[in-house]
UniProtKB/TrEMBL annotation:
Residue span(s) of domain Glycosyl transferase family: 190-345
Protein name: Glycosyl transferase family 1
Residues annotated as domain Glycosyltransferase subfamily 4-like N-terminal: 15-171
Domain of life of the native organism: Bacteria
Organism this protein belongs to: Burkholderia latens
PANTHER family xref list: SULFOQUINOVOSYL TRANSFERASE SQD2 (PTHR45947:SF3)
A Pfam entry, by short name: Glyco_transf_4
Keywords: Transferase
Alphabetical list of SUPFAM superfamilies matching this protein: UDP-Glycosyltransferase/glycogen phosphorylase
Signal peptide range in chain numbering: none
GO molecular function per UniProt: glycosyltransferase activity
Amino acid sequence: MRVLHFYKTYKPDSMGGVEQMIWHICDGAAARGIRSDVLTVSRNTSTVDLGSHLHHRAKVTIDIASSPFSVSAFHRYRELMRDADIVHYHFPWPFADMVHLTARTGKPSVVTYHSDIIRQKNLLKVYRPLMLRFLDSVTRIVATSPNYVDTSPVLQRYRDKVDVVPIGIDEAAYPRAADATLARWRREIGGKFFLFVGNLRYYKGLHLLLDALHGTRHRVVIVGAGPMERELKAQARRLGLEGQLLFTGASPDEDKIALLELCEALVFPSHLRSEAFGISLLEASLFGKPMVSMEIGTGTSFVNVNGETGFVVPLGDTPALRSALDTLANDPALAARFGAAARQRYEARFTADKMVDGYVEIYERVLREQRQA
């Protein structure tokens, strides 16, 4: 079997959450005898050999609203699809819809539905007819959590052809931090702390976290960079939180791993549906850490189960967020129980192997159904 993944970016050009997921699927599929290729659009057109699979790149022509387009990708896609048995898309990316509907290869297609389109409402009005034609035409749609299926109007429309495969991460990608790195962070932070990991974007809800911290003594380390950084630092100054917050910026993996090992809990205050799952919640689960998140009707509450692996507080409720942090800080036995349950949930549901098995089963099923049609 040969699978072509088609997405806008990939390693080494970019390695965000979707790219990390594609990597795990391709690498795990190779161990199961399945060959994978990845096609993206990029300023660099050389093909990259990543060991278990190849990354092919078509020249980007234009980028509109974070959605790159490529004239040459149409031809490159057709070339690669001659040898592929299945194409695997990652939604949303409008250009992929155009290529799929234009190429009409007749081969089975799987699309991972990562998120509804939340912020670009005006663009959605224009894009919606194309989006619906695309989703009508694909063989199977894969959601990353049952929560998202239940709360997405788009997925409800296609429920009869939706499967659920949770995102998984590989523990081997998180080697324990060196003793020297752990000691350095202990010296720098100087005590117990909560941890946030992620890009500093509009939907991450960090302004709500800062409001919740006002009047407490809790320390929070914020790992990540992004367009909201300056605004958040200004808010921290207004609230008098400078002594409680440490902004590390974008940090090397070893530092992130060390902070995951050392933290009391992960706080994940995302407040918009743009946050469909939350890779850092999986990372906290892997390290056996309790979590605090907000209820936004997405996969975040599938990873962090209220009262089992941590607290899920009502959307926008900063007093409840503050209370959750207080409880974990003051009840280490409860925090330890939540952390142990989080680790068990990771092992049961969120390993990379379980994710790969889920996709391989779907690939085999759609090929079998095509042969029987």
